[in-house]
Amino acid sequence: MILLVDLCYEKGSLSRYEFVHPIKRILERSGHLAEALHITDLEGADLDCYDRAILCGTALQDNAYASHPDQFLWLKGWRRPILGICAGMQVIGSLFGGRIVPDLAIGLERVEIVACSPLLGGPGSIEGYHLHRFCVTLPEGFMLLAGTPERPQAFLHRDLPVYGVLFHPEVRCRFIIERFAVL
Amino acid sequence: MERDQVACLITLLSENEDSYMFHTPNVRWAELQARSMGIPILLRRTCGEKESELQDLRAALLAAAGRYSISGVVTGAIESVYQASRVQRICYDLGLWCFNPLWQADQVEYLRMLLREGFQVLISGVFAYPLDSSWLGSKLTEERIDELEALQRRYGINPSGEGGEIETFVLDAPLFRERIEIVRASVSYSGYRGRLQIEEARLVEG
After folding, report:
1. Residue of A8, A86, A135, A173 marked catalytic
2. Nearest-CA residue of chain B relative to A15?
3. Which of A33, A123, B24, B154 is deepest in the core (most CB within 10 A)?
4. Over the stretch A81-124, which tens digit does the pLDDT of each residue have?
């Protein structure tokens, strides 16, 4: 079972249809069970029943996820595959020491992959859909997979199966979500 | 409907029948739909010139913010990155939230959901091969959805019409207090392009 963490501004928000449900559909269509929980419901939840987690993105105006970093401390010791998308990537990056900095991008952009990984494959270029006002700098202990250290578009922890992508693979490059499901 | 309140509808009346951004067939009748829902509507004309029509959309959102104190916008964008990203940009510039609850929805499932929920949808335009004139004026039914699904598989058309392949007009919906009855309409069709133009319509009970 894959955990989808809803980072949207409130439980039951209108945004979940846009940022959580599409990911759930992709996973279910490729034969994987997924369950979405809002970040406020994680405390007390049995996280052992999930074999991996995706931290979903949020609306452009939604920065609520950055207000309570203590809600994400469990990620450090969880030791299962984690994929952070956009806001999710920022959560992961800041948790491990990266800085959240302004970076506005709306729409399709080329994503230059600079290192090999099971998630993105080898170096090359893909098209990603971006919707963000911020990004996170490359934290210590992470390998840059795409972009630059000041503006990583994808990264991977060197010792843990923890990924972050700045763009939204549920819109373009759905293979990333499908690959993550079987890592 | 979620907890948020719908303050108003916003409709751009484009003079360009082939607008990249805005629905055009029968769009002026959105006013009747708004009346049926009891929701104010803000109408704004645009010449429909590509990209510059966005300035008209921006002005409309600004007017809505001023008149109705809106804090955000909800669109029906499903897969169109072209449209969604442009609305997102305008909302960002104006400090408005932007919600797209149909984003990346399965289009066929979405159409089936409309029928389940009680929407009555008229097909008012066709603009793609092999859609013939029999589509114009027909209602969205399970059979029509099956046909659209087959056309999607064979020709790659968008069943929801988001690419402009078909255009529709909602005659009745759960939010409508009265349904819309078309009193008079004209049809034009040629070379896999056609429209049903509503000339006269009214609200009726039941």
Report:
1. A86
2. B99
3. B24
4. 999 999 999 999 999 999 999 999 999 999 999 999 999 999 99
